[in-house]
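fwd from M.: "can u put these together and see what the complex looks like"

so here's what she sent:
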Amino acid sequence: MKREPEELDVLRSGVNLGLLAKHIVDGFMIGMHKGTRRGIGSEFSQYRSYQPGDDIRQIDWKMFARSDRYYIKESETESSVTVRFFLDMSASMKYEENGITRFQYATLVTAVLATIASQQGDAVALHLVNNEEHRSLSEKRGKAHLNRFIHLLENVNCKGHWPESTDWLTDNLNAYSRELWIVCSDLLDGEQRWETFIQLSKSVGHEIQFLQILGYDELHLEIEEAVTVEDPESHATKNIRTSAVREKYLQNLHAYLEELKTGLLSPRTNLFTMQMNQPVRDALFEFLKLRERL
Amino acid sequence: MIFSTPVWLWLGSAVLIPVLIHLWNKRSGKPRLLGTFRFLPEESFASAKRIELHEIPLMLIRIVLVALVILLLANLSWKSETEIRELVTISELNSEKIDQTKNENGNPVLEFSSAEIDAMGWWNLLAQADHDYHPVKIIVKGDFSAKRFNEIRPEINAGIDWQQNDSLVISEKIVAAWMGSSGESKALIHRRTDVGISTNIETLQEEPEQVLNEVKLILNSKNPEEVNLGLSYAATLWDIAYEEQQISESAQFTVGDDQIVTLSQSGDESGAEDLIGANAWTGISFQVTDLDTGLIAAHSILASRDKHTPFLFEDEDGNLVVNGNPDRSLKSWVFVGVGNQLIRSGLDIEASLWPIMDEVQRNPVFASESGASDIPEEQRSARLWLIGLLAALWLLERWLAPKRGM
């Protein structure tokens, strides 16, 4: 059944994206991963004896006072994660359902996740990508950066398709820090278009989370019977009888989605599909719960 | 099929509306963006410029719906089941075995015995056939003697073709023939016409087989003027020779050598009763009644007081009747009637053979030529059928339309 997501109403009404994202985030403050700032939330792991070369600042002096021996207090590796968002800016993101576009939905998802990450002290980076244009915001922490991040999400004109090459990305690659890539797209451009991107992501060894955003109507084709549909990217049109084409269409679509899932299958790659009729809050809650288990 | 309010048929062009709607449906509407466009099967492609085949049933249903509404407005009705026959034949048969439902090339042939026709009269039979079959033409075969035309002619829309039944009566019959005043052969002829029998006095072109009677009327010159005027007028009608002489009788009527009719003069000049006295053998019966102004045309009127009141006429038995005592101006007409009767009895012509026809019979109207369209047809409205069909089709349309998305 189609459901009218209530926050999408708010999104439609044009409220500030950052506020809405914050509002949603306040609803569930569940960390995506453990705290990342050094000294905060660090947990004791073990003591080991001092060995030459160790930083003397790490010596536990209280232990030395008790035992007259040098011990190094080890804690869990405190990580600093960069969350890098890739937002598809291709024409297919213009797909509209219930009055909001796929891109609007994707921006809300991105904004919410970025807000969460930022609140946890992670650096966030943003790439708005299509084959003609690449807007990016490099990774940084802090509230001001988050505001810039959200500002960049606004006033975007979706056109073209996802780029076939990954040249635009190579400059931004940083294999030395730990990164989480979150890709918000419909992933409908065809598996081959994503191939290079996926290969690249695998090669750098970062964890990639694909968030596939699909419309309810796209998944079920429960639209009016006689309709002219247009491909947002090629602008080709077709007159269809939904009842006549539904079966074949769903077959094709599911075959593709299955293929895509297989193509993405790797230990550090995940795919999560969101339906546009689902409220962003619910979809993300489900998503984050799933991630917790990983 | 008949349309009571055919003006609505102008709306017939409205049947194009569904076609236009279907075409419009194809052309209008902003295309819907579908990101998953490429997963649509190739065969779903259809040109936007033509109506697809599988839409046609729905379109036809809608056209029929519109047409039904128009037919309903135009008040479609059917004629009654009585077929219009081109031809109906009514035939007189003497045979006892009568098949009343005979057909000749699909046209009904109605057969009646002579007794039935005598009892009912031709006009009743014709009216019945006209009502039952609405034919364009009725062929009547039989004997058309006057006694079978006693009724007033009814309204008959069909044309009537009178065909003499040869075995019964010839189409033309010379009832009597005599030598005319100027020596030529005169005859009283019965002739069949469209409206029955006409009786005329005509000059014969050929010598008749029968021996001609020399007929002559001798008037007494002493007779009052109106007596001689009337009698001579009757002689002129029949074209017999007459002359005035000083004779003992009032009038002598001679046929051949026989002086068979005499009128004795009793001396009273005013009354016809006196003129045709008890002693006189005239062969006619003569009666003067009290004046009856309410009298409507009797059998055969020879003279009228005015347009409506008959003055001199024959009753059904052939007796001469005078309605009220004649004044001077009408007295001569009494003697026209007397002379007429005398001549007929002298020529041995039965009174009943004189078919004087009613006004309607004299002026036949053939509706088949003039007013066939005025026939009030028995009509059966198709309204119920149309409404039923409309409802059924509408339900079908409502069921089909969402499936076709139109």
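replying to her w this: The first helix of chain B runs from residue 16 to 27.
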